[in-house]
Here is the input.
Amino acid sequence: MSLPEYKKDFLKAAVAGGALRFGSFELKSKRISPYFFNAGDFYTGELHEPIMDAYAQTIATSELADGFDVIFGPAYKGIPLAATVFYALIKMDRARYAKAAYSFDRKEAKDHGEGGTIVGSPLKGKRVLIIDDVVSAGTAKRQAIDMIRAAGGTVVGIVVALDRQETLPEGDGKTSAIGQLRKEYQIPIIPIVKLDDIIGGMKGVIADGDIQNIEEYRAKFGASD
Here is the structure.
């Protein structure tokens, strides 16, 4: 099945801008991955636009499209994502999202002015959609969920750029970090693209050897959830 245009544009921009690279990369888990993704590399206007549009399209076409009040970006990478994806949604459909809002956290509480760790929309009584780049071990997402709940909000889902579709290093050999979070919190976690999309979307674009290495990595570490 062919990928939607926004996913194709996202992958094209990711490769062109070096956010999605192919080769040999050591991960925190000590696994040697044949690809590496870093959403922090989308820092130019030319590259930033496709990823923001892809996030917005992913949200607007998902089960979460009308199910949130606030977009929340965990510090640090989530902060610009929350602000710019919120803007992309407004540009896409002002009538639908005009009353939505966005928010993010500080790493350290402010002890003057408005104080606290939450900046932007108050979260109390709100349905909150977390937006971030990836899920690695899931620790940062658990912290964000705890923070939102402590502020009186309800987390309704998480949207990320990439689902690596690989098992946790110390897991059961079947479950991914995203799969574990889904089970733990019973919320949807929706990626713009999955590893399978990279494999399918990059054939004929990158070297056949790189595709083969990714397929072998998927076969060795791929999650079944």
Summary: The longest helix spans residues 45-60.
